[in-house]
Amino acid sequence: MLPVWFLFAAMIGAKAPAPENANEYLVHTADPAVRRAGELLNRGEASQALGILEAALPRHPSDPGVLLLAGLAADRSDQLTVALGYWRQSLRLAPNAALRALLEDAERESAADFSWERLESEHIRLRYEGPAIPQDEAHAILAILEEDDRRISAQLGCSSSEPIVAILQSRQQYLRGASAAEWSGGHFDGRIHIAWTSGPEMRRALAHEMVHACLARIPSGSSPWPAWLQEGLAQKLSGDTISASDRERLRQLASDSAARRSRSRLVSPVPRASGGCVPCLARRRRCALR
Questions:
Q1: Element (H, E) at 118
Q2: Which CATH code fits 19-112?
Q3: DSSP class of 17
Q4: What distances in angstroms separate CA 247 from CA 152, 237, 241, 242, one per listed residue?
Q5: How far is residue 71's CA from residue 194's CA, in Å, rounded to a whole number?
Q6: What Å distances lie between residue 189 and 34, 61, 106, 165, 192, CA to CA?
Q7: How far apart are CA 175 and CA 50, in angstroms?
Q8: Is residue 54 a contact partner of residue 70, using CB atoms and an 8 Å limit?
């Protein structure tokens, strides 16, 4: 069984999870090349993984799991058209409700993506929607992303031999493609997606998603970093703060919750559910394999 997982998003408007486990798809393989591709994907090196998988596909022409993996590698390499092709082949070989939902979301994203202009820096590959986004704004955002990557990588210790892909869209196209809530400003699904706005909110959104991109490049074993850790670090390192009134309210809620737990233990113990999974905050993960 291949231990592979993928962070999906800031996802807000994430691709749909597998029904049995919100963080897993199952891929069975004894091929060491496919296993190697999974390891590379977990380190954020999707282009290398895609090359390995495309070389392995002639050995597995009818394996829906390898095709699914190849689609994920292509998606994270910012080759969505290629990814759609692999996922459609996989579905023709084996119906999969979770992959069908993933495909439908990717098709919607593709139809709304007019981010054809490109800029690159040492660590960032930016696509942006011109002329909706002025070129000087795109250059400024690229510089911010590069700065955030250096700062956050130094703080968290993440690294990759491949650039981070970031996609900058007008708010209208972002919301269309991501099917996100109206308040959503960005998400990470192996690539950073950002809705272009002006003001400090934009800067915080860029840093927030960069934290998710950084954590995706740090090995965490057979499962992704927990959602509470990801969100806490993303908020902390992007400069989010809590007002004094909200902090007091949180203290009161925590106190009330502790009191309720104490009372419940005096009445009767409640057994912990077995086999359950912790839901992702704001559905911020996209999909995972194991």
A1: strand 117-120
A2: 1.25.40.10
A3: P
A4: 26, 18, 10, 6
A5: 22
A6: 21, 27, 11, 10, 7
A7: 28
A8: yes
As given in the structure block, the two tokens for residue 235 are 């908020």
For the chain, the first-to-last Cα distance in angstroms comes to: 6
List the chain pLDDT tens, one digit each, 290 residues: 233 344 322 222 334 333 344 334 557 778 899 989 988 888 889 999 999 999 999 999 999 999 999 999 999 999 999 999 999 999 999 999 989 999 999 999 999 999 999 999 999 999 999 989 999 999 999 999 999 999 999 999 998 889 999 999 999 999 999 877 777 889 998 999 999 987 788 899 999 999 999 999 888 776 778 888 999 999 999 987 777 777 787 777 777 665 544 433 333 332 333 322 222 222 223 322 23
User: Cα-atom radius of gyration of the chain, to the nearest Å?
Assistant: 20
pTM beyond 0.90:
no
Ranges of each domain in the chain: 19-112
Helices (H), 113-170: 135-156
Residues 110 and 185: their CA atoms lie apart, in Å, by 18
Q: How many residues does the chain have?
A: 290
